[in-house]
Specification:
This protein is about 70% helix and about 0% strand. By secondary structure, the protein is an all-alpha fold. It has two domains: about 240 residues, no CATH class; about 90 residues, V-type ATP synthase subunit C domain (V-type ATP synthase subunit C fold, Up-down Bundle).
């Protein structure tokens, strides 16, 4: 039995705590990182910012790592609250929505090892990995820290197995293939494929309605479109890289996009991807925005998971914007340049 009425009432209350539209203008008008942290301290992030500063080194009043910790802690606290409100099928579907962040976090951990920026003797790198993640699903911050501090990527995979995460078998297999062949892109693809396959199966078992299943299909389409553009110029088995389950990007279109030269125009695609850019750097934020717009269409049902789905997307965008704003003000990026970049966050 799901308690969507109560859950959605709590989500409506949480939406009022999202940052106001004028927050960015306020920070940019202040002109620096101190103005940013001062403004952030006047928002719902205040207790998290205070805790992060207390956790940091002495004198670490205004640091990027402190802000990263505060943002991650706030989003994690919000996710825990949502899970506490949800019951029955609503809790199951919410857990599936949060698993997408686990996938992103596993990629961040693997990417750090791939770049030689993680390991048992790299405490600074462990903090950097934590700052690049949003541990709000089953993969919590403690497990991320353990993985990032492992002696190698295989050790990180074993830590995930010990934690009992549902993606542990897929991650361990992907890591083994990476260690053997060195193809990091294939590791990321394996995680995407395992994630989408398991989410569809579990969502159907939990009685998800057609609208939510269509949303999950759209997430698959977004993954396939982004993957196809990244595949350009690579000598990979295109068919093996396709993730089944989507509706808007067919296997044929996927192969056509992947086979084209880098920078080539995309073929005619169904909505909401008809206007998608072909530049990989611009495509990722564009896809996030397109999926969020679709999630917004699910919010009308007071007895469904749609309102939670859209709220999580909005919270993710807020966190990404805050991290970008923190770095921009810290490094003195011109206000107009930063404003333009925030438009794509």
């Amino acid at each position: 039995m799901a308690n969507y009425g109560y859950l959605n009432a709590r989500v409506r209350a949480l939406r009022t705590r999202l940052l106001p539209p004028g927050f960015v203008d306020q920070v940019l008008a202040g002109g620096g990182f101190e103005a940013f942290t001062s403004a952030l301290a006047q928002t719902a992030y205040a207790p998290d910012l205070e805790s992060a500063q207390a956790y940091g080194a002495a004198g670490e009043r205004a640091s990027l790592s402190g802000v990263d910790r505060a943002i991650a802690a706030n989003v994690a606290r919000t996710a825990r609250a949502l899970l506490g409100y949800a019951e029955g099928d609503a809790e199951t579907l919410l857990g599936l929505l949060l698993r997408r962040y686990d996938v992103a976090n596993l990629k961040a951990v693997a990417r750090a090892f791939h770049a030689g920026k993680a390991g048992a003797e790299r405490e600074d790198a462990v903090e950097a990995v934590l700052g690049a993640t949003l541990p709000i699903g089953e993969l919590d911050a403690a497990t991320v820290r353990t993985m990032a501090g492992a002696s190698d990527l295989a050790g990180a995979a074993q830590a995930l197995v010990v934690a009992g995460h549902p993606l542990a078998p897929a991650f361990r297999a992907a890591v083994a293939a990476y260690v053997k062949g060195g193809d990091f892109f294939a590791l990321e693809l394996a995680l995407d494929q395992a994630h989408h396959a398991s989410v569809f199966e579990e969502a159907r078992s939990a009685g998800a309605d057609e609208a939510f299943l269509a949303y999950l299909a759209l997430e698959v389409d977004a993954t396939n479109l982004q993957t196809a553009v990244k595949l350009r110029g690579r000598d990979l088995d295109v068919d093996a890289c396709f993730v089944p389950g989507g509706d808007a990007v067919t296997r044929k279109q996927f192969a056509e996009i992947a086979a084209a030269a880098p920078g080539a125009a995309l073929p005619s695609l169904r909505r909401p991807f008809a206007d998608a850019p072909d530049d990989p750097a611009a495509l990722e934020p564009w896809l996030r925005a397109a999926v969020e717009r679709t999630a917004r269409t699910l919010t009308a049902d007071p007895l469904g998971i749609g309102l939670v789905t859209h709220y999580l997307r909005a919270k993710e965008r807020e966190a990404a914007s805050l991290r970008l704003l923190a770095r921009g003000t810290f490094y003195g990026v011109p206000a107009e340049t930063l404003r333009r970049e925030l438009g794509h966050a």
